[in-house]
Amino acid sequence: MSGIARTNATGGEGMLPELLAWSSSLQFDRALVREDLLGSAAHVTMLSRVGLVPLADATLLRKELLAMHAAAETGAFALADGEEDVHMAVEAELGARLGASVAGRLHTARSRNDQVALDLRMHVREQARLSLLACLALLRQLTERAAAEHHVLLPAYTHRQRAQPTTAGFLLAAWASSLARGAELLAFTLERADRCPLGAGACSGSSLPIDRTLTARLLGFSSPTVNALDTVGDRDFALDFAWAAARVLLSLSRLSTDVIDYATSEFGFVKLDGGIAAGSSMMPQKKNPDMFELVRGESSRAVGNVVSLLTLVKGLPTGYNRDLQEDRRPLLDTAPLLLGALRAVSLSLPHVHFDGTRTAAALADGSTQATDLAEALVQHKGVPFREAYKAVGALVRHALDAGVTLRALSVAEAQVFHPAFDAPVLASLDPAEAAARKKSIGGTGAVEPQLEALRSEADRLAAIAARIPSLASLAARIAEEPLA
Ligand code: ARG
User: Which of 228, 302, 372, 459 is deepest in the core (most CB within 10 A)?
Assistant: First the structure.
C-alpha cells in the first residue's frame, strides 16, 4: 500500500505517502465495485440525457462501465491497488481504457460523498434482500417441522427448571416466531433504504441541471433522498441492517443454546447425527454441537458491529465526515456473517433429532402438570385459584416426602388435601392432555393457528423482498435506457 496514486482528490503532491496509504479504504471498499460501476453507469446515462455529457462520450463510458460490471459479476474484474478508494480506482481504470478526457466527464455533478452513500445503500439493499430470503427459507423450514413434530412431548423451561408440558412443535414454533420478527426488521431495512442518494453531491446538490429522479429510477429506488446535506452523512440504513442482522443472529444464538443444552447427556432431548456432530481430538467418545456453538459465538460479532456503527455516527456533525469511511468494516462484515449463520442453522437442523422417549420421560412424574391440576380444580370444581394452588402445592410436597410421583397418588390420598380432587381432575396430570388443553391464543394446544400466522407472515415478507430488484438485474435496466 505504499504507492497510492496522488490525485487532486487525495490532496495532490503535498500529501505524505505514508498517510495516503494509511488513509486508503480500497482494501475494504473494493467489495463495492459492482455497486459503484452500476451507479456510474446510471449517472452517465442521466448526464447524457440532460445534455451534460456528449452522446458519443456517454456511449463509450456507459459501454465500458457495463463491460467492467459484467466482468465483476463473474469475478473476472480486478481493480488495481494504488488508489485511495474504489471510486478513484474505477475512474483511474476508465481513464486507462478510454483516455483521461472522456473518463474525466463522469464525475460531473457528483462527489465521492454521494457516491459512497449510494454504493453502501445498494449494498445494504442487495444484502438485506438476500438475507431476508434466507431468513424466510429457514422460517418456513422451522414452521413445517413444527407441524410435523407437534406430537413429541417436551417440557418447557422457566429459570432453566422444568416448568410445563409442551411439544417439540411448540418449541420449533417459538424459534420460528422469534426469527419472523428479525425477518420483519430486514424487510423494514429494505423499505427504509429505498431512497437514492445520487445527486446530493458533496453536501448541497448541484447547480447543473441533473435529473435525480431518472438516476433513482435506473437504480431501482422509488425516489431520490430528500435533503442533500442529510444524505451525505446519513448511515441510518447501515444501522438498520446491522440491527436487523444482530436481531436475527440473537434468535439463532438462542436456538443454538437450546440445541446445545438439549444435546447434553444431562438433558438427552436431542441426538445429533454424524452430519453435524464434531469430534474431539482427544476424547474418543465426544459428539460435540460445534455448529451451534459457532453460530452462538459469531452472533457476538453482529452485536459488536451495531455498537461500532452507533459509536461511529454518534457525535459527528451534520454533513460528510471522513470518519464515515470506518463504516466499511462493520457493515461489510454483516451480510456474510448473517448469511453464513442462517445457512449453517438451516443445514444443521435436519441432523438434530428429538428423542421422544427421553422428552416424555421428563414429564412422566407429573410434577410439571401441577398447574394443570390446579386449573382443573378451578375449571371443573369452581375452586378459587389460590386455594387450588395451595392444595396442589401441599399434594406435591406430600408426594415428594413419600418418595412417589404425583401421578401415582390415589384419589383418596389426594382428597386429604382438598375434597374436590377426583379421578377426572387427576386425569389432568397426563402430559399430552395438559399440553393439548392449553387452547388459549399462543398456547401449546393452539399451535396450528400459530403456524398459519407464520406462513402468512413469510408470504407477506417474501412479497416485500420480491419488489426489490436484484443488483444483477440493474445492468440490463440501465443499458436499455436511451442516452438521448
Ligand atoms: N473513501 C471515502 C469514504 O469511504 C469516500 C468519500 C471521500 N470523500 C472525501 N471527501 N474525502 O467515505
Answer: 302
